[in-house]
Fold these 2 entries.
Entry 1:
Amino acid sequence: MPATSPKTVTAAPPAPAEPGLRTGSLGTADIAFFVVSAAAPLTVMAGVAPLAIALGGIGAPAGYLLAGLTLAVFAIGFTAMSRHVTGGGAFYAYITQGLGRPAGIGAALLAMIGYNGMEIGVYGLLGSATQDTVHALFGADIPWLPVSLIGLAVIWYGGFRSIDFGAKLLGVLLVAETGILVLLAAGVLLKGGAHGLSLASFAPGNVLVPGTAAVLAFAFAAFTGFESTVIYRREARDPDRTVPRATYIAVAFLGLFYAFTVWIAIQSFGDARVVKEAGSNPADLFFTAITTFVGGWAADVMHVLIVTSVIASLLAFHNAINRYGLALADEGVLPRSFGRIHPRHGSPYMAGLAQSALGAVVVLVFWAAGLDPYAQLLLWVNTPGMLGLMALQLLAAIAVPFFFRRITHQEGVLRTVVAPVAATLLLGAAIALVISHIDLFTGASPLANAVMVAVAPAVFVLGFPLAHRLKRTRPEVYEQFGQS
């Protein structure tokens, strides 16, 4: 009987790996660009700082320094915890592990409402800012809706592409918008201001005035989104070092740059004149200053760069929202389709598509209702988002000491107790200031303001019955929530 040769068994090829985020793509500077771009420094300075000067007087620069110091204190405990909580859920994961799953689920809802509110409302600003720019440069009037819809498409594409593409684009836009403010500063400093340079803005008698409360409210709002550094942890190089560094750099840059730029604006008119100018025509304050000290061409460039500043802010918030959507899909809370990652670009493209679709719906609803892109779409949608993110900062600060009490660690008491408790008190005071001056942010009726203030706590509280339902119907998802 002839010998039979043994059958050759061919191993099945390994299943292709699931596409994932581009790990190791972002350095400290890249993450800092995302955070600072979200704050939109040029837009905040040209659009909001004149109001802070009008209300708080020449001591307004100190308000931005105080806000920056408060958030630096918050960052001490926040970044200490970031070394121990390594998932992509950022705020809600921190709050879950410090305060429990029901609070964490409420925080997840609050994060989605907060970041979406901060981003979608800004499409109204994009439309109105572009209208103003086209009118200033060409004397033409254009409708705002097509601009906002084109912006939605551009931002969707930026989020669809790889994260390093977004970082490079934001780097260019951020350098441009800060560059025009540096140019203004150089012109003012070289010419010695309107009547010589003065440090009276930092004198206690000019800082400790009733209007400083309003300045602080504007100042805290100007930092919104700085904490999103931790959202990019999975895409960062050496995240234990990169994320804390980017957080501190972002806070320090924004605090110092805001204070310096507001001081420059004051010097361009002089201490005696600037409050009157800011009160009578706040929208033109920075344009008048740069025309006087640099030239009319620089004012034209500033008009254009305000539009690109808004685009940079939109893209930064869009990328943050996408990663929250991805994290919640990975948790099993959102549909799994939201967690799909593009095989080529490494981007959470389905979460981005859903977010852009939501933005388009909101924009179209406001347009169909005949509402103003700035006074209604921006302010009515942005304000609840801002309060939501500030509430998340407060909850995260509260969560830090509770988290470190439950684990074995080698962090010092300053980082785990003293700084978080101080941050809790300071952030609580900041939220109270914003709420007490909410009419300055919205220009709306008392009833509308009450509704906007109520959104954040209502959304957070809604998380508790949803957590109970999740625990009863999907216990495996509930048990794993926020634990990655």
Entry 2:
Amino acid sequence: MVTDDRSPRVDAHAHVFTRDMPFAADAHSRPDYDYSVESWLADMDAHGITHGVIAAASLFDDANAYTLSALAAHRDRLRGTVIVPPETDAGMLFRLAAQGVVGVRLMWRRVDELPDLSIDPWRGFLHRIADAGLHVELLSRSASLPTLLPALVAAGVPVVVDHLGVPSRDAAERRVGTDALVRAVETGRCWVKLSAGFRMPFDTAAEVARDSLERAGPARLLWGSDAPFVNHESELGYGDAIDLYRRLVPDPAVRAAIDRTAFDLFFNQGC
């Protein structure tokens, strides 16, 4: 598969939903609009993007039905992650994998106390995720990464870290988080998404992207738009997200290599 250097070919992080979907009780935002899978595909088509990965959204907790229906309708182009409780059995995880699910999203960005991943139910859950051929999609902040990433890697489960590891605005804390990211990447079991850079100062996003490229390389990086940019809809469009990515990764050859990483990881095909 040939990659056009002018644009990314894989959007590895976007959310799709309709206004009819039930919000989680603790949803931090409640969008009053639809961003259907058809809307996302239209945005992708308009910018030459051929494949995508739906990221489960915390706003809807474990309401995965819409994601699964989107995967069923567009299996050639899409993969997705889901939110499920840690008691989920192996059979269910294997059935989800057969439907185009590639990962289970764990979100500890807004928690005060991190779970102990070395004991059940988490220990068994992580093993079942790995056995089903899925990865953990981790959303957590810089300060938590030195605790969470070694535990996840030790459990033997592949990890994809969202949003540049949600870097802290505090330089020392951000450095600790980036160092933990790089150490996890060096194990060969971890990838980092260059996504949601618009949710942080550009200099912060550029610093983490630069460090990740220099220390991890494009074989461990992914790009995602984070469409439809919840809470930033009036400031950003899909093309703007791509422009930001090009500012963070100006070399088209490096962007092409990041595309290859996404195809290999999510679609098991070279490009």
